[in-house]
Amino acid sequence: MISVIDTNILLDIFLPDPVHGESSLKLLETVYQQGSLVICDIVYSELSPQFDEKKLLDESLEKIGISIISPNTDTLYMAGQLWLQYRKKQKSRDRIIPDFIVGSFAMNQGDKLITRDRGFYRDYFKGLRLN
Fold first, then answer.
1. CATH number where 87 lies
2. For the chain, what is the mean pLDDT?
3. Looking at the DSSP assignment, which residues form a beta bridge with residue 36?
4. What is the pTM of this model?
């Protein structure tokens, strides 16, 4: 089982978030027991401002067993198409294309997405397993 981890879960743990930190850590521990944990390079970029050194971020991810995988072109194309549908429907810029890359990455290159943002992903990524 490949669990794709969304940025919000990792920020809950790394910062730590007083409201969601403990529950996000427990969730991460649970999915770790079920298989591999991965993030895409978008999530890596979103995490980087929280670390003064790249080495510290890399070591933190390695310590908790998270691998970094780049999205393939099928994933990126899907993300762009879904973002276009969103823009036509919503007419807002609340969601940006990185959100769609993470969702498409989970659908195409993982088995499920670990996130707190389930409503958005449920609406735009039909069939994506969420945890």
1. 3.40.50.1010
2. 93
3. 2
4. 0.91
